[in-house]
Amino acid sequence: MKIFIYPANSLILSDLVERFGHQPLAIMKEIRKKVTDPGLDSPPLNMTPDDAKKGLKYAAIEIPSGVRGRMALMDPLIEQAEAAIIVEDADYMFGCMGCARTNELLKYVIRNKGIPVLELKYPKNENEAKNFVLYVKEFLDKLKVSEAGVELTPEPKQEVRR
């Protein structure tokens, strides 16, 4: 199953998702496509007019271009997401996302997509870190069972662990 992770550049969260048998949707692969594309000569990101249009899908023309550009970059990840894990109040070394307004819009779009979402607070001590990994594992295991076609008891679409 394809799992959207937030922060989208978190190597730790990406590794956890992969270890538990799912595909993490991380921003690094999308950036790589833009940087290694030989079509345009404007590094570090080769934004095209089509990318700007993708950004307009999420934010109006009056919104700063940086927000629309970031949302255009995130669009393929949002479209592919079958579930999501959102980590709130993460340490900047866990995966800094940079733009606060884009972050709020991104979380809003993911929460309203109608996919299962696990929201966690960033752990502040060893015990919280152990629980963090446990919650992620339980969430991903439930997704694996539901993906295999086994009927689960009805649960809310969104799961919040604090």
Automatic annotation (TrEMBL):
A Pfam family matched in the record: DUF2112
InterPro entries: Methan_mark_5 (IPR012356)
NCBIfam families in the cross-refs: methan_mark_5
Name used for this protein in its record: Methanogenesis marker protein 5
Species, as recorded: Methanocella conradii (strain DSM 24694 / JCM 17849 / CGMCC 1.5162 / HZ254)
